[in-house]
Amino acid sequence: MTLRFGVVGTGAIGREHINRITNKLSGGEIVAVTDVNQDSARQAVEKYQLNAVVYQDDKTLIASENVDAILVTSWGPAHEGTVLAAIEAGKYVFCEKPLATTAEGCRRIIETEMKKGKKLVQVGFMRRYDSGYIQLKHAIENNEIGEPLMIHAAHRNPEVDESYTTEMAVVDTLIHEIDVLHWLVSDDYTSVQVVFPKKTKYAHNQLQDPQLFTIKTKSGIVITVEVFVNCKYGYDIQCEVIGEEGIAKLPEYSSIVLRKAEKLSTNILNDWKSRFMEAYDVELQDFIDSITKTGEPKGPTSWDGYVAAVTSDACVKAQLTGEKEFITLQEKPEFYCETTVSEIMK
Amino acid sequence: MTLRFGVVGTGAIGREHINRITNKLSGGEIVAVTDVNQDSARQAVEKYQLNAVVYQDDKTLIASENVDAILVTSWGPAHEGTVLAAIEAGKYVFCEKPLATTAEGCRRIIETEMKKGKKLVQVGFMRRYDSGYIQLKHAIENNEIGEPLMIHAAHRNPEVDESYTTEMAVVDTLIHEIDVLHWLVSDDYTSVQVVFPKKTKYAHNQLQDPQLFTIKTKSGIVITVEVFVNCKYGYDIQCEVIGEEGIAKLPEYSSIVLRKAEKLSTNILNDWKSRFMEAYDVELQDFIDSITKTGEPKGPTSWDGYVAAVTSDACVKAQLTGEKEFITLQEKPEFYCETTVSEIMK
Amino acid sequence: MTLRFGVVGTGAIGREHINRITNKLSGGEIVAVTDVNQDSARQAVEKYQLNAVVYQDDKTLIASENVDAILVTSWGPAHEGTVLAAIEAGKYVFCEKPLATTAEGCRRIIETEMKKGKKLVQVGFMRRYDSGYIQLKHAIENNEIGEPLMIHAAHRNPEVDESYTTEMAVVDTLIHEIDVLHWLVSDDYTSVQVVFPKKTKYAHNQLQDPQLFTIKTKSGIVITVEVFVNCKYGYDIQCEVIGEEGIAKLPEYSSIVLRKAEKLSTNILNDWKSRFMEAYDVELQDFIDSITKTGEPKGPTSWDGYVAAVTSDACVKAQLTGEKEFITLQEKPEFYCETTVSEIMK
Amino acid sequence: MTLRFGVVGTGAIGREHINRITNKLSGGEIVAVTDVNQDSARQAVEKYQLNAVVYQDDKTLIASENVDAILVTSWGPAHEGTVLAAIEAGKYVFCEKPLATTAEGCRRIIETEMKKGKKLVQVGFMRRYDSGYIQLKHAIENNEIGEPLMIHAAHRNPEVDESYTTEMAVVDTLIHEIDVLHWLVSDDYTSVQVVFPKKTKYAHNQLQDPQLFTIKTKSGIVITVEVFVNCKYGYDIQCEVIGEEGIAKLPEYSSIVLRKAEKLSTNILNDWKSRFMEAYDVELQDFIDSITKTGEPKGPTSWDGYVAAVTSDACVKAQLTGEKEFITLQEKPEFYCETTVSEIMK
After folding, report:
1. Domain extents in chain A
2. CATH class held by domain D132-270+307-326
3. ipTM reported for the complex, 2 dp
4. Element (H, E) at A32
5. Which 205-234 residues of chain A touch chain D by CB within 8 A?
């Protein structure tokens, strides 16, 4: 059985997923595309030699009987509408972050999905599919380090351009940490506080960089996350979980070891694509396989999209106030409690 | 375009490749299978829910018009016959090692392929597709360590069973080093000498373990390879290239880092499948993609199979004599000189 | 020339220094000892076969013409009186932490020393003599990582006994970080805030463990220090300085590397003595050498003792309030501005 | 008690030891010096402000009643005569390598010392005092890796000058490996073979560089030692012991870790002095302490000097013949069997 995808949004990330499904993964096929820019949609079909229909808009694409799953890779503000329509039509959805630009939007999606009575949506938080994070989660769940007490994380980019704002450190960057860290320790966030260290000379005028977030969870775990988007030296994701019996830390990038010019060195990557390329592959293959085998996706849910939205809002508020801000979630519906786990996590 | 495979041999490795092509990779399909044990062939079809015909033998399978490429995963002594027949029929071949059990057999394949006038055969030396070895090769070719002068390699398995003989240290184990190391430095072997260190108590009576091979190349590179198949602690592949300006070494297995019980540790694997699983995927995907896009496979050729066979013979002889044994290859035909390189290596 | 020491306090740490000066270092000699427990003083003389007079109290010992330098290793509350008397007598002082138990006490010492017109006092902050911290400081001063923006530090002990209180996490443990970190970045502290993560089950009832301190400096550097005194896995001191161009981190303990039982591991120490043993040696040798060659000690001064006291007070207050507490230092007197640096730092 | 040294040879290494004993270590004093260049001897006295008599030659220095121990740091060919005279006079000897330039010379020293009936001589093989090698030896003796089967070692210098010959790779460089490796595994050598890899362009015309030695021991351990004295990248000593249960490897140089310019790196040293500086200190302090406390030195003996000489001879012969050369030692006298071990090794 082949899962037939309709793609909404044929920009950079959309095309990457089209290529992935067409040329690298098994069991999926692009059969429909659309974009607000119809030319872009047509060019994508041509470039990847797709056997796919170009639709006028997301509504008609979703309505097509040939489409099983909607890949939402349009710009953020358009996500909510497409996702809601797809759910109403009973189609599967793979939606890149954000699920919706507001917590209210996410709540609407949750309600619609629950009313439909079936988990249909997966949000594109690919870190959960990274082999390093999976090893970390296994170590925690196998009690290799005892009860987690703290996490020290860092998200470092070599540089950003002038359009990157202080707030984007949360909504574009920290959001990946927000998703992956609560999943890692199976806990919920309760508060966040932000401190701004001395600003690097490489940050433009309006940008506060680096930033240091201190986040607390329901069970009392304290998480520090450094976000530093002009660190110059490379793209570097660090995560260290401090437990009662020991500490587990993400692997460094797997690199040959050089002895040269009085240095013993390994390479650090300089872009996020190389860092998470494999995770993107595994993520989409898992989406295809889980649906094909079990009838529902097993990755990050609409609820996870909602958690990310609420937490982001509090983090942005904390940037402005400098005070501790609380993160208040609705009660988690039974519907979203994990009963099964993807094969990939075993 | 989909590359249609016929599988000859549905044992363990055959089934792994069937699963890989069917459920993980893109662009290939299993349409035909055969095995000396017809029940095994039928069970494979059922298990992987293949839409494939079960043939009585390799000859009829090769003859099928629906088959583009033959996957040779039968037992070693049968390889040569199947490969020759496939070439005669103008079919592509992916053949697990050995290409043939004798150097003469390999020569016959080379001659047949050259007469056919087209590169059709790829031998299953998957190490060339391992990201660590690829990084090493790039480092050498980008002149990061200068001219290579020595290589120190080690191949360690946790343990082997009673059926593993001293000779198998060459034909089953060292053979992977033989293939990958001459490729790494783009050189040919000229001689080999073997020393037997003190034997581990974990080796059975007839088995000499560990063994130390010293191999020399045409340009004078000296390669030491330790083969140690009862090392107990894990499956561990080491390779360090010493150059005029510096040294490059394979990465260790990418593992989370633990601080626990007065140890700072990472994990070592204990089986070869996990170590090279990704390389197997990349290898077969490259076979499919290269043929689809360029009309010929770009991986290890029949010539590489011949080099491995001749070198193995010398290594086995060196085990018996304790003396330096020479490795004498025919002149390499123009036909096999690489003019193009797979995308994967770029 | 030999520097003649009088030791005030012959408990554990006092005896270690006696042994060090007598049997490991060059240029120093123990000629006088005293202790509130006269038996202890006499036993120390016997045990280390010292050619030393046992004095009745610190005053008479200080008064002795044979004594050049006073080694203050009595219990904390007694330090101030001994140090003041030694300064008045014009004797050199090596005083284990704390210089005095209150900031006021430290100020009295500073005033007395300034009135005397000569730097006489060195405080026993041995970390500045650790080769790892020295490498870090050199890296910063040689501009290898650009301007420092953040520091992430951790101080972990395997365990503490029932007598260890929440406050001692500051006055006994954090105090070493307090001293070494402002020295590292040549900056002063301005505020501190404390967060208490989930408590480890290994901490006794009254003890909050771990604790997380966020300290800010005048120039805006943000320092996070994790203090975790029941971490179980070992004695582990971490320090990472994040700069505008790169990051520098303390080395791990220098250990052989083991491959065993599917782990690649190095050893972690389990006690502070082994960790800083060499630093203690270098520290006291530098005290002896600096005085012998230049007439004054070059290590941590009375001013550094005062900085540690004021900062400790603010940290303890922050433990109680949970709020940001300010660290207010007097203007640093010209007298204590480093004009020369010890040879050891070059 | 102070051990009074007479120094024979006030060149570079002699002066380093003079400085070490005078300014860094405890319990030793330089009371006498001599040199074939009397000016050099006088200058050393002045430079280090020694309270020492300048003697005309080694004989008169040895005869002095004020001298307890002779430090032999003259040029190699003079060692034997001085050592013999010192033994005859019943004086302790610390002799830099070589003990004598021929195996026969070493035998004469052994015989003289045995006749004297007391171990008086220690040879300056400082590696046994390096904390890394001591950790390795402990790991082996505590059976952490099981029975040793192989050793892979490398000795790399950044460069050598035109005066360095192929033979010096043995007598100046390999000699340290020769001493430390048989001590490490408590075994004796039986044969050696040499292979010359492709020569680095950085080696001058007459110099074969690198060289690869394969040495076998009585119990069957196979040792490979790479000697590469123009490796350019740094001074690097590697040693890995492969045992039946696991592998133990020397630590890398303890360096801060840098993240900078897409590299994660530590520093490699570029000279041997920094690498073994601490070992030199510990070595001489142990010489002083062992004599002071037990009446005899506990370090490498005359027998070890003899083993090094015989093994060197075989290695040089193997360089010339390209064949396996045997290493034949006399029976080890009871006199030199270790009955006690230095404290430093516990």
Report:
1. 3-123, 128-272
2. alpha beta
3. 0.95
4. strand A28-34
5. 232-234
